[in-house]
Amino acid sequence: MASNTNPRHQLKRVNSTTVEKLEHVLASRPAALIPRIVNFILRMLLWLIPRRIREYLSHLLSILQAKILFQRLGLGQKFRLFSYKTIEREILTIDGVSLKTTHLHPSTDDGRKHPCIILRTPYYRYFDYAIGVHLVHKGYHVLLQDVRGRFESGGEFTLAEYEKADSRCTLKWIGEQEWSDKTAGVVGLSMGGYTSWTAYASSLETFEEHGVHVKCVVPIISSCDILKAGTYADLSRKVDDPIMNLSLMTRYTRLTHILGSPKTVFGSTIGWFVFRMASVFHEMRQKEWRKKQMHLPLKSIDLIVAQDVPSPRMDILTDPDDSFFKERDHSWSVKLLGQGFIPGGQSGVRPHGCFISGWYDIFSRSTIRDFQLAAANAAGQADGRLTLVMGDWQHFDDFITVSLRESVRAFDKALRGQQPDKPMLPVRVLCVGAKGYFRTQRPLWEHALSVINPSTSKYSISNESHHAWRQFSSWPPKESRTEWLSMTAGNMMLSTFAESKEENFTDHSLRFELESHHYDSFVWDPFNPTPTLGGRMFGLFEAGIKEQRKLTLRDDVVVYTTPPLKRTVEIAGDVYFEVFASSSAVSMDIFAKLCIVLPEKSALGKEITYNLCEGIKRHTLNVESGEHWPKRIRVHVGPICAQFGIGSRIRILLSGGSFPQYSRNLGYGDPTPTSTRMTTAKHRVLWSGSKLELPVTSAYSLEEALSCDNQEEADEIWAQSGKSFK
């Protein structure tokens, strides 16, 4: 294990045997004993069950999952167990490795050739069985495949190493089948979405070999450059001292390490896979896991979270321009998709792309970036081939209903030329807060009700009884207009910028603001960093919309809030926060979170604040050149579509970081991967020049929504404000 120079963060190493693990739990964490005992008992029970019975039970669980999905889609009566064939196949790679593949084959043989849908995943192919069943009911052949080295496939698993070559062999196998019409579509979730891009890239490079034209790509909560998108907070990746997506890096490393033993007797059942993954996320909620995430330097944190097993992903911290990572960036294939490139000089339907994610997903920004990249290369001739769908989901959320409907719509249009019954604009986004609905952590009983009664499903774009979906021709929407809210005394955003203008602030005027104490200050302590509360986290429980009151009460958080709104304001696009700031340290981060304060109170009479989007930006002084504070820092708070109802208030939270969502700023400006020394810092946020930029799409402007003729009118608005949320 890598040594840690900080004695505060020394970790006690535990031997790998089960007995010693249980002894360690008894001695150090009695509260965590029960789930460990349950884990141990289940392992023993699974060991006693014969392999064939385990596979049979796993298949039954998958069928039950498919039945539930059909209920959610309102198609419960159309689920037919024997309307398709399930054939287990083994597809050989170039080097002779066997890829375990489940082939879902329509049982009716009409003599015609059919397209094929490919789902390649490192997370056990039967996890996507329900999706495959729905697609095979639509008349498609479906291949569910474990990638190399995972679960029942042979070989060794290396992150994003063999995906393109193995996709090539899968496409070649499809091209050799009698039922194939030489067209295919690819779809996948998370890392499976990245394998979709590798399959599309492989189809472009090796088309003459297999002759299969991939006409539709549906990446869900994913990215075409997933290694860098999952590592850096800044998608531009051009900064010298990047901020790391710490939570995603450490948790994914731990998760793949725990689930990375596909040859074990437990690795071939979906029930065991789900339970093991849940136990890992339970472990990540313990105090010991927080200590591991505090480890320095960051370049060796993989050895801490994965028990001395190095991850090649961590090499990106020290050498982001290495050829290993450049070869795994498939932005070039996204550009060709946008251009409508058809390999082999063929004519016909140009390739389609359906980009699906959620505002609170870890890959939300990269999904939008991929869509914008494809749309920019379409040169205004996308013809409805490119669509973007953004819900209010996080990475482990219940987005399957909308995602599957959008996927089928894209496949039918690209592979069969079928036009949707109801024409829609290319961009479909969910407006958070519309009609007063906020998707907080749903209890299990609500999930159960939605399964028992599919009419309660709220996640259809055509169903606006609970949600409100908005449709635009592009993203950001052309209909949006930029409006500003400025910072002022009393932590209230009272004034607005009437028009776009570039203020000229000189060093003299900024020093005057500091000397006049026209600023707010807070202390950033990397030893006790500001905690993450909701947002774009990688986790089952911590991500998504959360109540933010705990953050507003902290001393290291600055809060700016507007008065209650007189009119409903809706925003759609990119939110920015621009600030003039100074620090006692050489380097500082500004973390900004846009929130909404509801007009109603909680049961305890406390105000309710929900997060909408967040962003972070780092600035490190160039001491050698004589650079000094204060500096203008522009934070991309994030893309969002949200509604602020009458009586609600707009709120922005500022802090020096968000841990463990992002890596800490240690204050000295040392390189992030290797830095170990840290210091507390006092940050100052000047009122002058600091402003919040909002992309307003509603008829009323911010100035109209904030203006009140008198205090009595404002009080009346506040008293009546709850009606807009009912």
Automatic annotation (TrEMBL):
<dbReference type="Pfam" id="PF02129">
    <property type="entry name" value="Peptidase_S15"/>
</dbReference>
<dbReference type="InterPro" id="IPR013736">
    <property type="entry name" value="Xaa-Pro_dipept_C"/>
</dbReference>
<keyword id="KW-0378">Hydrolase</keyword>
<dbReference type="InterPro" id="IPR005674">
    <property type="entry name" value="CocE/Ser_esterase"/>
</dbReference>
<dbReference type="GO" id="GO:0008239">
    <property type="term" value="F:dipeptidyl-peptidase activity"/>
</dbReference>
<protein>
    <recommendedName>
        <fullName>Xaa-Pro dipeptidyl-peptidase C-terminal domain-containing protein</fullName>
    </recommendedName>
</protein>
<feature type="domain" description="Xaa-Pro dipeptidyl-peptidase C-terminal">
    <location>
        <begin position="442"/>
        <end position="693"/>
    </location>
</feature>
<dbReference type="InterPro" id="IPR008979">
    <property type="entry name" value="Galactose-bd-like_sf"/>
</dbReference>
<dbReference type="InterPro" id="IPR000383">
    <property type="entry name" value="Xaa-Pro-like_dom"/>
</dbReference>
<dbReference type="InterPro" id="IPR029058">
    <property type="entry name" value="AB_hydrolase_fold"/>
</dbReference>
<dbReference type="Pfam" id="PF08530">
    <property type="entry name" value="PepX_C"/>
</dbReference>
